[in-house]
Write a structure and sequence with these properties.
The complex is a heterodimer of chains A (440) and B (803). Chain A has 440 residues and is an alpha/beta fold. Chain A has 13 helices and 14 strands. Chain A is globular and about 75 Å long. With 803 residues, chain B is mainly β. Classes of the chains: A alpha/beta (440), B mainly beta (803).
């Protein structure tokens, strides 16, 4: 009779926490071990990373690297505005970021050669070129071999408390998977949008009708089963037991629920970030790193503006990014978290200088501006430059490997480390690259 | 300057085009000859002025009522990877009546529609000769079928739907169950037969593009169930099917495959249970007489088998096929043109261990032979391949596996040197050898051959006052080069073939392109027939037959091809364009997005334009909907409201495709509805909802004849500080049995208690659910909607104790 109540949540589901059940928690001994490794000669400046990923390819020539002297079909309709840093200009629809330009650095000479969405995403998130054609990846995650940035950070640094180490907001990042590291290092995924008025992380609450005592009895029963059945000590049952244990820790500890409770923020604070998906995810990301998450990736789509791009850029996309980024940086600073939190905003590519005949810009990976703040990077700079059409870097270009190397460097992660796949292939966590000079 | 740049690119990016009407499906998809069948036509982008054209003039199809609204595919929906899968267009259904004369043979009949926007694809309706059963819209889990033989007409109308039919076999023996799943929107049908104990007795799925056919041996008086699903548990209103269940043998093929007119010949009938009724491929031989005056290509013969009556289809010719030599010895398998052999791959070739037949012939240098292996036209599953090997050198001379339009094989052999040649005919279909693997081998001398085939596209549209070429493709057999004369029968009024062909139009660059394309050279064998539509004629359409005639010496051959749907059209009068495309605007799910659209009127038209959803939409269309709006004369932009349900994924953009429709009269004063495509799509970037209604998950038991309270909570974003209306959504399955008064929550209120009034009616008993909807108006105009579905157990009100 009771089977069909409680919105069809059954006993098994009560223990299936996390929509993919993949929470990056580790044991205390392992954590201590990891922290010792992290301190191996490289004092970590950043404890956490918030990675705002503008999926589709933001038009940085309209945002961070304007070319007012270029022909109209290149420069676009918008003018540059001055910023709080004399001599630094950004696009007119980024006024909030302009005001805090002294708190972040624009890297204008980011450049690579992958012009595809899913392949570019894979490259940016893993540091390895995709082995599939653009658009041909099998789903999310599409990085089935190479671990993502967040998974590497999760593995190298481990958790801080009962909070997921690696989180994707609001949806799984297309290349945000753990690759061969395995599900232990996969992101915790909400698959719900914090902009919604009823936002809550479903999997952090006990199932209706299940009390804490009842859950504890189930856990002990599962433990007894593990002891009596030797086959459960290895392979998939063991992995599942790990999930159950992590899930139990999360569901019984108040930290995670508290961190995900975005309604605890004042309306004023929420408004400061903007009532957009990107804004509220950025705010949630701040709460998560504050609580202990190591890597929060925010996936924000719709930046693939091939056709009639200017209305959506002007009305929605740029203002939402401008507000979210500026609020995040200043909020972190206000809380004393900016020095220990590295904030990066970028996409998988930039967009063509030439406005096409349908009033849009196409894929262009040769130039893209990447924004850096906190985490020990030097603020208030513009690094690198592009030519008069924003087509190619005119200074030393920095690529995906350099971005990844710099992130790891700031987090105190040994970039020379190599892991071996189950089939014996050595995979360096950083496939080349260098720390971007003058950025740190 | 930049503004002018944008204006320059605002229009004319894609050529203005009409949106042709398309046929989706007919439900029920079949009916019995000699009856009148009330059906619903699933239509895509039809306008009120469409003309219906059955290919068989004896069939009548009449529209009997107005077109309904768009039928949005109901939940459940797929999310994640599968959400992006292509889906059939959204249909609007039109009631119609199909009258089938009694002498129609069983099988599919075809029909088309046309309007001033052009001609449609081909629609199919299947004529049966036995009992027909139609799956009703609302029904119990399992449907009981009448006595066999019977055909169930059904459809898999939504994702995860499983249709289950129960039938009883009166007499023991072979039963054939056939699922035809490609007569509406094609799907991959999956069919399972279970016995009364639930044990699977046969199952299969349509993975090869053919019907699913299952056979099993039934026990007398036993009840079985047949379940039909899509292989991936997809569903759509257009996934209509016919499930035929017959007791008796099933004929697969015959030997010979071709018989001579006017002769009575012994025909080996090959099929399941044709000799004993057992579940195995068997053969029997029966004499079959073919009337001499039968001019048809095929002949349907009724035969009695020991296992029951069956029907056999034979191809007709003016010459009899030879039987395949029984011996594998090449001495007995010598070929000499002209020759036609009905053969079968009933054993593996000993040397190659493949289904392969060996033949041999002698030829002199320069001799020519045309050799072909036919299987497709006989319905055989064989995929023949031909190889010719020079015996002396052991060298392969020529090989062919497939023809351009068929899996049959043919080679034109030019002998390189005097000698003996082996002809190897093999089956590359992968089938195991079987007597049912039949094919026909034809050997001809090209110098003596005189034959040809014609083909063309199945439709042609041309605007009034315009021209178009009907391209007739010809392929000749033989070495003759005499002319082929083409005539067209049944052209629509106002469309003619001019005595002097008009000059070809000047090539124009494509929109946005700078280069003028070079005119295409006609392919060898193409005959262009220029057609002209008079500028002062009415729009019209008809089914046209191509008649091609060629004469060589004293022999004249006539070939007919058709029907071709020829339609005279009116040029489109509008182009609709989304003001914002890629990237789109941020839209909160559950809200109504007033999309800015731009409108360009063409051909001097200045009147109002109706904008409505197009039938063909894109991914993540799950429940996205719009009502039609009218843009008044003079207005060149409008807001097109699009409702986006609250369950849409935020990780995918949503799109809307819109059609513009204007009413104009053709030169004869007939009112026409002219459609215009959308340039680009309206794109929406989905974010979380602004309004959500929720309930506490708990056990709820209500009683009939009582009032039951359900507390709900309405959450609103700060972007929506307005009152909300809370109401019960009527359940069409429980009409009038549960009611509740609507509640209006002020902007500062979030809690409400919905008081359900349950009628004292036993139909309510059991597990039910009620859906509560909250609605608020964004910007005072555009509705935001959230719904929550609440499980409920309804028990009978306790009886009042008698006093």
């Amino acid at each position: 009779m009771h089977n069909y109540f409680c919105d069809r949540i059954n006993r098994r589901q009560a223990l299936r926490l996390g929509s993919v059940g993949l929470i990056g928690g580790l044991t205390l001994p392992r954590l201590l071990e990891l922290e010792a490794v992290a301190a191996n000669g490289r004092p970590a400046k950043a404890k956490s990373v918030i990675f705002l990923f503008l999926e589709g390819g933001p038009s940085t020539i309209d945002m961070w690297d304007l070319k007012p002297d270029a022909p109209a079909e290149i420069r676009g309709p918008w003018d540059p505005i001055s910023t709080s840093v004399p001599g630094t200009f950004v696009g007119e629809h980024c006024p909030l970021s302009a005001k805090i330009a002294d708190k972040f650095t624009i890297l204008r000479s980011h450049s690579h050669k992958d012009n595809g969405h899913s392949t570019g995403y894979h490259y940016c998130m893993t540091g390895y070129k995709a082995a599939f054609a653009d658009g041909q990846a099998g789903g999310t995650p599409n990085n089935l071999l190479f671990p993502s940035l967040g998974s590497i950070v999760s593995r190298e640094l481990g958790p801080r408390g009962n909070i997921p180490t690696y989180v994707n907001l609001p949806d799984p990042m297309e290349s945000g998977g753990p690759g061969f590291y395995g599900p232990e290092y996969a992101p915790f995924v909400l698959e719900t949008d914090p902009v919604q008025p009823d936002f809550k992380v479903r999997d952090l609450a006990l199932a209706p009708g299940v009390t804490a005592d009842r859950l504890d009895r189930r856990r002990r029963m599962l433990g007894a089963l593990d002891k009596t059945d030797g086959s459960r000590a290895a392979g998939r049952p063991k992995v599942m037991s790990t999930y159950y244990e992590k899930a139990y820790q999360m569901i019984t500890a108040p930290d995670a629920r508290k961190a995900f409770d975005i309604t605890a923020e004042s309306d004023k604070m929420r408004e400061r970030y903007g009532y957009t998906s990107l804004g509220q995810c950025a705010l949630l990301a701040r709460r998560l790193v504050e609580a202990g998450s190591r890597f929060v990736g925010v996936d924000n789509g719709s930046w693939d503006t091939h056709f009639s791009q200017f209305p959506s850029l002007k009305e929605d996309l740029i203002p939402s990014a401008d507000r979210a980024f500026s609020a995040l940086v200043t909020d972190l600073e206000d809380r004393g978290l900016l020095e220990s939190t590295l904030v990066i905003m970028m996409g998988e590519m930039g967009r063509t200088p030439q406005i096409n005949n349908r009033a849009g810009r196409d894929h262009w990976s040769m130039t893209q501006s990447v924004l850096w703040a906190g985490g020990g990077v030097k603020p208030g700079q513009v690094l690198g430059a592009t030519d008069k059409h924003c087509a190619y870097p005119t200074t030393e270009p920095f690529g995906v490997h350099d971005v990844i190397c710099t992130i790891f460097h700031q987090m105190g992660i040994d970039t020379k480390k190599v892991y071996t796949t189950p089939l014996g292939r050595p995979v360096p966590i950083c496939d080349g690259g260098r720390v971007i000079p003058d950025l740190v | 300057m930049f503004t002018s740049l944008l204006l320059l690119t605002a229009f004319a990016q894609v050529p203005a085009q009409n949106v042709r009407p398309q046929i989706g499906y007919v439900y029920p998809p079949g009916g019995k000859a000699g009856t009148t069948v009330e059906v619903m036509l699933g239509t895509y982008d039809w306008t009120p002025d469409v003309q219906i054209l059955p290919v068989d003039p004896r069939v009548k199809i009449e529209i009997t009522g107005p077109m309904g609204d768009f039928i949005l595919t109901p939940p459940p929906y797929w999310f994640g990877l599968k959400a992006g899968q292509a889906q059939p267009p959204l249909a609007r259904e039109v009631p119609a009546r199909i009258t089938l004369p009694a002498d129609l043979p069983p099988g599919p009949i075809q029909w088309r529609v046309a309007s001033a926007n052009g001609g449609s694809n081909v629609g199919t309706f299947v004529v049966g000769d036995g009992a027909e059963f139609v799956e009703p819209e609302q029904h119990a889990k399992t449907l009981d079928l009448p006595a066999l033989p019977v055909v169930a007409n059904g459809r898999i109308s939504r994702i995860t739907e499983i249709d289950t039919y129960r039938f009883t076999v009166a007499d023991a023996g072979l039963v054939t169950v056939q699922l035809s799943d490609r007569i509406g929107q094609p799907f991959h049908g999956s069919l399972t037969i279970r016995d009364a104990a639930g044990k699977v007795v046969a199952d299969g799925a349509g993975t090869t593009g053919d019907d699913v056919v299952l056979l099993f041996t039934a026990q007398a008086g036993t009840t079985y169930t047949a379940t039909v699903t899509d292989l991936e548990f997809a569903g759509d209103r257009g996934y209509v099917y016919r499930l035929s269940i017959n007791r008796g043998p099933r004929v697969l093929t015959t030997l010979p495959l071709v018989v001579k007119r006017g002769e009575t010949v012994p025909v080996e009938i090959i099929g399941w249970g044709v000799a004993t009724g057992a579940l195995k491929v068997e053969t029997i031989t029966k004499p079959i007489a073919v009337p001499a005056d039968n001019k048809a290509e095929t002949f349907l013969a009724a035969v009695d088998t020991p296992a029951g009556p069956a029907s056999v289809t034979l191809a007709l010719s003016d010459a009899a096929d030879q039987p395949e030599p029984a011996s594998a010895d090449l001495a007995a398998r010598q070929l000499a043109a002209p020759l036609a052999i009905s053969a079968t791959f009933d054993a593996l070739d000993k040397a190659s261990n493949l289904p392969l037949d060996r033949y041999q012939f002698s030829a002199k240098k320069g001799d020519a032979l045309h050799i072909r292996a036919e299987a497709a036209r006989f319905g055989s599953a064989v995929d023949p391949s031909l190889v010719i090997v020079a015996v002396a050198e052991g060298k392969e001379i020529i090989r062919n596996d497939d023809l351009p339009t068929s899996s049959d094989a043919a080679v034109d052999f030019k002998c390189p040197a005097d000698g003996v040649y082996d002809l190897l005919v093999s089956d590359v279909s992968g089938l195991a050898p079987s007597r049912a693997s039949t094919y026909r081998l034809v050997v001809e001398n090209p110098a003596e051959a005189f034959d040809f085939m014609i083909s063309a596209l199945d439709k042609l549209d041309l605007p009034l006052g315009g021209t178009a070429d009907l391209v007739v493709k010809t392929s000749r057999r033989g070495v003759w080069d005499d002319p082929i004369e083409i005539k067209l029968e049944g052209l629509p009024a106002g469309v003619t073939v001019p005595a002097e062909p008009p000059p070809p139009p000047e090539p124009m660059p494509a929109p946005g392109a700078k280069k003028v394309p070079k005119p295409k050279k006609p392919a060898p064998g193409d005959i262009k027939v220029p057609l002209v539509a008079a500028a002062d004629a009415a729009c019209a359409s008809s089914l046209v037959t191509i008649v091609a005639t060629a004469t060589v010496g004293d022999k004249t051959l006539e070939r007919r091809f058709g029907p071709i749907l020829v339609t005279s059209t009116l040029k489109t009068r509008c182009v609709v364009k989304s003001a914002v495309q890629d990237g789109g605007r941020i839209v909160n799910r559950g809200t109504t997005y007033p999309a800015d659209v731009l409108l360009e009127r063409l051909e001097g038209y200045e009147g109002p334009v109706t904008l409505q959803m197009a039938a063909t939409q894109q991914r993540q269309r799950r429940g996205i909907r719009s009502d039609a709006i009218v843009v008044p004369a003079g207005a060149d932009r409008a807001q097109f409201p699009i409702f986006t349900p609250e369950w849409l994924e935020t990780s995918l953009t949503c799109r809307m495709n819109v059609v513009g429709i204007v009413q104009v009269k053709d030169p004869k004063g007939n009112l026409r509805y002219i459609t215009g495509i959308m340039d680009g799509l309206i794109v929406m970037s989905m974010e979380g909802a602004l309004l959500k209604i929720s309930h506490e998950p708990e056990e709820r038991i209500a009683q009939t004849g009582s009032t039951f309270e359900i507390p709900v909570r309405v959450s609103r974003s700060v972007k929506m500080p307005v009152e909300a209306r809370v109401e019960l959504v009527a359940d069409p399955a429980l009409p009038g049995l549960i009611a509740a008064e609507p509640i209006v929550l002020a902007a500062n209120q979030s809690a409400a208690t919905v008081k359900l009034r349950l009628v004292d009616d036993p139909r309510l008993l059991g597990r039910r659910s009620v859906t509560i909807r909250a609605t608020a108006l964004q910007n005072g105009k555009w509705p935001a909607i959230s719904e929550t579905t609440i499980p409920l157990v309804i028990e009978a009100r306790p009886a009042v104790a008698a006093k």
